[in-house]
Specification:
Length: about 140
């Protein structure tokens, strides 16, 4: 694998409204709500991307279902690692015995992703995020 940087970190939340209120009003962070996707971006210095993602939307994106499958631990966050080549990284992960929960695909927002779950339940994305790179 050729991890270039942490592309993003998102809290996975049950309630988008409660998460926006907590981060915006309690923590004083600038939160931008993306009404068309039910996703929120938190503007925090020092991050490439910090988001609030509902469990429902994480399940839809990862499994194509509105509910998180009971055979997988419910994640509280997702960490996205930017790699030079997602397909190559996936091949290396699989050779090392890692099981993916989502194979390589291009998301509707243009990011190439593959996802796995760590032993402790962290949803990890291996990504290529075109708008975060200069090349």
């Amino acid at each position: 694998m050729k991890i270039r940087f942490v592309a993003g970190f998102s809290l996975i939340v049950e309630s988008a409204d409660a998460a926006r209120e907590f981060c915006g009003q309690k923590l004083g962070l600038a939160v931008e709500f993306e009404a068309d996707s039910r996703y929120s971006t938190v503007n925090a210095r020092g991050t490439k991307h910090f988001g609030l993602w509902t469990l429902r939307d994480a399940a839809l994106s990862t499994f194509g279902s509105e509910t998180w499958p009971p055979e997988h631990p419910v994640p509280q966050a997702t960490l996205e690692l930017e790699d030079e080549d997602v397909s190559e990284a996936v091949s290396e992960l699989q050779a090392n015995g890692v099981t993916l929960v989502q194979d390589v695909r291009t998301e509707t927002w243009g990011q190439v992703t593959a996802r796995l779950i760590s032993p402790d339940g962290l949803l990890i994305g291996i990504t290529v995020t075109p708008w975060l790179t200069d090349d």
